[in-house]
C-alpha cells in the first residue's frame, strides 16, 4: 500500500519536472536506495537515487562540533585512554621529528568507547536521515574523525578515490550509509570530499594501494581503475553541513594546501538486519587479510576473523540488534 502511495506521489509531484526526470521517476517509483517517509522530499530522494549522495546544510550545531573538537584535543594531549581507539598518523609527518606529536595525528578510528565523540553517532537529526536509507534498526559500524593535515609537499594528505564497501564484509550495500560532517569550512583548498555522482550504480571494484611517489597512508586503498572522464563534484561545505552517501559511491579527497588541519567527523551506519559475507575469493580478500593481521597483533590472538573485527566494534544506536 505505501509503495503504491509513493508511486502516486512521485507521479503527481513530477508533473512539474522535466521529462527526463519524469521518465526516471516512473522507473524509480519503487525506490531502491531509500525508504518513503516524511523527511525526504521527492527531489531529495530522486537525487540520492541518481547521484548516490545527499547534502544537508547546517545539520549539526556549532556547539556540538566544538564539543567534538575538544574531545579530539583531549585525546591528542593523551589526557584520556580510549579502549579500541585507533590513532593514525600521516606517513610523511610521522617520519618528521619537527612536528609536535598531536599534529601528526591524521585520523582517529573506532571511537565507539569515547562517549563525547560517540554522541555524534546518536544525534537524532542524523539518525532521522540515516533511517531513510537503513530502515529503523540501526547499527553504528565504523567511526572516524579525520584531521587532514597540511600537506608536507609529498601529496600524502590526499585520499585516493575509493568505495567504502571495499572495507565492509556485510550486505546489502543499499542498507549501508555514511554520514560525514564538516567540522569547519571545507573547500578545494583544504581538501574537501570529491565524489563521482552516480558511481553507486556500479559494482564493487578492485582496490589496492595506489602507486604514489610520496607514499600512501596505511589502509588508504584506491579504486584500481575508474573512468577519468566521469564528472566530479567537489563538496564544499560549511561547519555542521552533513553529507550522506552510499557505500559504492566512488569518492576521495584532495590535498590540503592550507596551514590548518581540515577536520570532519563521520560514521558508517548499517541496518542491523544486514548479514556478514565471507570475503575469501572476492576483491575484498586483500583488505580482509590486512585487517585480520592488524587485529591479531592488537588483541594478541590469532584466530580472529574479519567478521569478528566488525561485530565487536558495531554499536546499536536505534531499534533492535537483529543480526549484525
Ligand atoms: O575525509 C576525507 O578526507 C575522506 C575520508 C574518506 O573517504 C575515508 O576515510 O574513507
UniProtKB/TrEMBL annotation:
Transmembrane region(s): none
Cite the EC number: 1.14.11.18
- Essential cofactor(s): L-ascorbate; ATP; Fe cation
**Coiled-coil region:** none
An example GO CC term for this entry is: peroxisome
| Pfam families (alphabetical) | PhyH
Pathway stated in the Swiss-Prot or TrEMBL entry = Lipid metabolism; fatty acid metabolism
Q: What are the entry keywords?
A: Dioxygenase, Iron, Metal-binding, Oxidoreductase, Vitamin C
Gene3D superfamilies tied to this protein: q2cbj1_9rhob like domain (2.60.120.620)
- Name the Gene Ontology molecular function terms of this record: L-ascorbic acid binding; metal ion binding; phytanoyl-CoA dioxygenase activity
Listed under catalytic activity are: hexanoyl-CoA + 2-oxoglutarate + O2 = 2-hydroxyhexanoyl-CoA + succinate + CO2; octanoyl-CoA + 2-oxoglutarate + O2 = 2-hydroxyoctanoyl-CoA + succinate + CO2; heptadecanoyl-CoA + 2-oxoglutarate + O2 = 2-hydroxyheptadecanoyl-CoA + succinate + CO2; hexadecanoyl-CoA + 2-oxoglutarate + O2 = 2-hydroxyhexadecanoyl-CoA + succinate + CO2
Which GO BP terms apply? fatty acid alpha-oxidation
Name the family. Answer: Belongs to the PhyH family.
Annotated protein name in UniProt: Phytanoyl-CoA dioxygenase, peroxisomal
